[in-house]
Structure prediction request, 599 residues.
Amino acid sequence: MKDTKALIEVATQVRRDIIRMVTQAASGHPGGSMSSADILTALYFNVMEHDPKTWTREGKGQDMFFLSAGHISPVYYSVLARSGYFPVPELATFRKFGSRLQGHPSVRKGLPGVHEPAGSLGQGLSVAIGAALAKRMEKDPHTVYCLTGDGECEEGQIWEAAMFAAQHKVDNLVAMTDWNGQQIDGRVEDVMGLGDLQGKWEKFGWSVIVADGHDMEAVLEAFAEAKRRQGAGKPIIILFRTDMGHGVDFMAGTCQWHGKAPSKDQCEEAMKQLKETTLGDF
Amino acid sequence: MRYTNTGNKDTRSGFGAGLAEAGNRNPNVVALCADLIGSVKMDAFAKEHPDRFFQCGIAEANMIGVGAGLALSGKVPFVGSFANFVTARVLDQIRQAVAYGQTNVKICASHAGITLGEDGATHQTMEDLGLMRMMPDMVVINPCDYNQTKAATIAAAEYNGPVYLRFGRPSVPNFTPEDQVFEIGKAWVVEPGTDVTIFATGHLVWEALQAVDQLKELGISAELINIHTIKPLDEAAVLASVAKTGAAVCAEEHLIAGGMGELVSGLLARNQPAPVEFVSVDDKFGQSGKPAELMAAYGLDAAHIVEAAQKAVSRKR
Prediction:
């Protein structure tokens, strides 16, 4: 378990990985990956009880994580590699032919750490609920985590899942939303506004936590609060306020970098802003 | 005829009985339903195993996802609704979370085909077999009567992987052995014959049995093969039979597009071309009516099978 300072360093390295992976692949989704980097770093390096050595797809005896917004695979792969699920140099194969690091996560290539494919949006929360039900039936006290995007909450299935989890009191589940306010075609509020997102989840019967997704102390405290609220008969969601593209000034706060790769020059510029870490690049 | 009707029963009740038995045999079997417990016949399981049954409400997309999550965690989920609502309505969920995800989910489709009857075209899916067999790695099963559906349900529970299990609403003759062991992917020769092979699946198998008798009177010896597993197709059985008879009829309660007939004729075209006639529906939606009325009106009964068999035989060189 890493402290805040160490986590910030990991998150910086994860952002370097994201930019370099997407640049080398000349495709991919850096924007949401960057906005989720602090959340997933905290989750994998501090919050979750997990062990890459004994990890199985079934997830028995460990916390489980489901990425619902499959397009932010760069941040997912970086965090998995950096926490020991597969060799860090393999990040260089991202999106290449024959790679285990498919454009969107797959379970057909034998990549450790991935429980279920994702890419077609709105589905991961339902799958995570199923995994949480299985844990409850098995009396496995571990937690199931699931990350969705905010644009993804325009999918109707998210709200089907929201109703189901409340109805069945799935209280060993912590959902998270990367609330960066951006999607491919523009700002979420302009494309298909979510309105009072916090109020919506509350009215759907969930226990809602709102936190700054780029303040590592606040991220950790949100997860600690989620832990305290577990087992009380309500599913939990943390709405993390974030900026798309966070960490590189010319990428931040815009939808321009949702699914666009930086040029080599832009990558170099980004590397200047994301200082090298002791962890080293892949 | 070697097989006689031991009394009409609905195939969905065969599913219900099979699910209850699978649930008793394996504590990992769980069931999910979208507000149709009684119609899909999940009531016995839900009553006996309330802790392993999940009411999902009218929200099929979420049901498929929850099923996938339970499956990847080691459970054996049976998710059930009307055939249209667990196929076309949730095709992308099945594609990603079940087929691509290789999760051990059993998709249980009741009220399939035109014999759903009075509810009409919105509920009468005749596209489902095609949609499901296009999914890589999906096993597709369409049993023909109560006993076979019960056995198929038990077999689906024992098989590790995604399965589409299709059954129907009306009471139909129950004629296959009560103690049968269902072997996925193994076609069943119901009646041997020499002049034409009738490949039949689902409710059309009983109709085909009647057709075999009628054809005998017309001097045509028809072989009847029950293709209860559409995918994987028992290719060896198909090829061996047509090598002997030289002509085929494919009978199913489905559109021609995507149906078993296309599979069989494609296989024959690639290996040993022979005349094939279809007893299925050509590019049409259904409508309200009684099951038997609709089967006759859409050309899905014994009379149409006889006609198709005669035509297939006449086309032989």
Summary: Residues 4-25 of chain A form the longest helix (22 residues). The mean pLDDT of chain A is 98. Chain A has one domain: 4-273. The first strand of chain A starts at residue 64 and ends at 67.
